[in-house]
Specification:
This protein has a single domain, classed as archaeoglobus fulgidus dsm 4304 superfamily (archaeoglobus fulgidus dsm 4304 fold, 2-Layer Sandwich). It is built from six helices and nine strands, in the order E-E-E-H-E-E-E-H-E-H-H-E-E-H-H. It has helices at about 50-60, 85-90, 105-115, 120-130, 150-160, 170-180, and strands at about 10-15, 20-30, 35-45, 70-75, 75, 80, 95-100, 135, 140-145. The strands form two sheets. A seven-stranded mixed beta sheet has the order 3-2-1-4-7-9-8, with helices on both faces. Helix 1 (about 50-60) packs parallel to helix 2.
Length: about 190
């Protein structure tokens, strides 16, 4: 896959957990350089609506035909509301890259799921995200992918990590999501 520097990316992150509804922000980016638009929606804290909501906002977006990659900050949002990345790819026809600053501790995740409804379904969605790849780029980062090969995904992550080891589209989505909800951006993307 030939990757253009100006590849159109939709990066999605969530805001702080303040109440039952959690805002998600999609930052529509041109490569790792230019923000071209914003999407906004809400999902339920510890719910099961993230995948459906992501599919809906992407397919209903005016940017839909331009998006070449969807970037996610992990596979769970709003606490433990899991995103089925394979279903997201299959229903949008847009490849998905899940970005993580550290390798998930699956034992801790399983324990955290114990007190939630539909724990088996949540665990299955998290497991279905597939193999975790380590990218050596300064501090190592990790990715999971659906709909594209590892080499292309690594190239996209490296190319868009223009200000830090976090892809700029995800960093900006995080800043916007936390800033809008909390009144000031916080934490690490």
């Amino acid at each position: 896959m030939h990757i253009k520097p100006q590849i159109r990316i939709l990066a999605i992150d969530d805001s702080a957990l303040i109440n039952e509804k959690v805002m998600i922000i999609g930052a529509f980016f041109r490569g790792g350089e230019q923000l071209d638009g914003i999407l906004r929606s809400e999902i339920t804290k510890d719910g099961m609506d993230a995948t459906d909501t992501f599919i809906k906002i992407i397919r209903n977006s005016k940017y839909y035909s331009q998006i070449r990659v969807i970037m996610l900050d992990g596979v769970t949002y709003a606490g433990f509301n899991p995103v089925d990345i394979n279903r997201l790819f299959n229903e949008t026809h847009i490849p998905v890259i899940v970005f993580m600053r550290s390798c998930p501790d699956f034992e801790k995740i399983r324990l955290a799921l114990e007190h939630l409804p539909e724990k088996e379904i949540r665990w299955e969605i998290i497991q279905r995200a597939g193999k975790i790849y380590k990218i050596e780029k300064g501090a190592p980062v990790f990715i999971q992918i659906s709909g594209l090969d590892k080499e292309s995904a690594v190239e996209i992550v490296r190319m868009t990590s223009t200000r830090s080891n976090i892809p700029e589209p995800l960093r900006v989505a995080h800043l916007i999501a936390t800033g809008v909800v909390l009144g000031e951006s916080t934490g690490k993307a």
